[in-house]
Amino acid sequence: MFYQLYELNHAALAPYRAFADIMRMVYANPLNPISQTPWGRTMAASLEMFERTTRRYGKPAVGLHDTVVEEGKVAVREEIVWSHPFCNLLHFARNVPSSHAPDPRILIVAPMSGHYATLLRGTVEALLPSADVYITDWIDARMVPMTEGTFDFDDYIDYVIEMLRFLGPDTHVIAVCQPSVPVLAAVALMEAENDPFSPSSMTLMGGPIDTRINPTAVNQLAKERSLEWFADNVIMNVPWPQPGFMRPVYPGFLQLSGFMSMNLDRHVIAHKEFFMHLVKNDGEPAEKHRDFYDEYLAVMDLTAEFYLQTVEQVFIKHALPKGELLHRGKLVDPAAIRNVALLTVEGENDDISGVGQTQAAQTICVNIPDNMRMHYLQPDVGHYGVFNGSRFRREIAPRIISFVKEHARSGKPVVKRVIKGGKSA
């Protein structure tokens, strides 16, 4: 009943939240003389803090309306080009001139780990000037009716394969964090069948390929608990009146609680500073806080079967690096990958996927030629910085674009480049 109590508490606070929002606008209204006083700004800040800490954050908009290509600024249109019950494939169509040379087609597989694909807005934005970008937009499980059936780890792999076949040959796939395992599995299965639609390159970023290497707090929790413990303690049924009523899920608010508890002091300090910025009427830092937490606090539910199978296969059994991962009864063999270039990217301070966990893909994909593989370790970034932020835009994104262009099937082979910590090796 915990999920039901969570919903009941949210509903019970709704009138207080609405009242707080109204009074905040009263105290912050420039026509109100009190708004210019420290006391008025303190009241407005307190009311905003209450409203923001008790609200449910909905899925944010992507909000990418333009980008800059060689010919200048062009408009960007977001469109759904492929749809299944648990995922939409979004295309960021650029209105490039007819004279514009074709750019590489990139499929970004966003993590299905509690946050929406909009968390990768910065990733998409950094790649758009140089690539034709698609991204998986996973759907909140509580919004999918029970009549649509289940969604498990095998289905995830099937979705990736279907999307690659839909996009056609010479597509490049990027997996951010959690999907690194199912994406590598999907590519291995396609290569084993000599599928002409297997991607030209595969980029794995901060992913848990082998969580036995430098285990983090997340890995330790999975190691210390049995699968039965997870099923008994974190799986709940979607309450009424959500469309997915009675669907067993891993609620997003539980995942968010886990993420925040790992760096609780940092979040407390951030909210304290936000309050002080509001009192001082320092608008820009306060707005940056709102933008970040509007995104960070927006979470989605995962289907129980997908969550439990991921915990079991990735974090408990380590099935992929051990060569024991099965997809619908068929063994997934990373050694089957021969024609897909591999780029692995890690963050030096990653506290979710430890250093070496993603690079393990280079070890298990033994038959990829040396001139088609590369590893990069980004100094001074944590998990989030692997796919977003200034260092991603300045250091990581250009390397991805360069790697993708060099390994397009229509291009020429290139010399091996292995880079660690910003230094060639």
From TrEMBL:
The organism's place on the tree of life at top rank: Bacteria
Domain PHB de-polymerase C-terminal, first and last residues per copy: 206-407
Any Pfam family hit: PHB_depo_C
Annotated InterPro entries: AB_hydrolase_fold, PHA/PHB_synthase, PHB_depo_C, PHB_depoly_PhaZ
SUPFAM superfamilies: alpha/beta-Hydrolases
Protein name per UniProt: Esterase
Organism listed in the record: Rhizobium altiplani
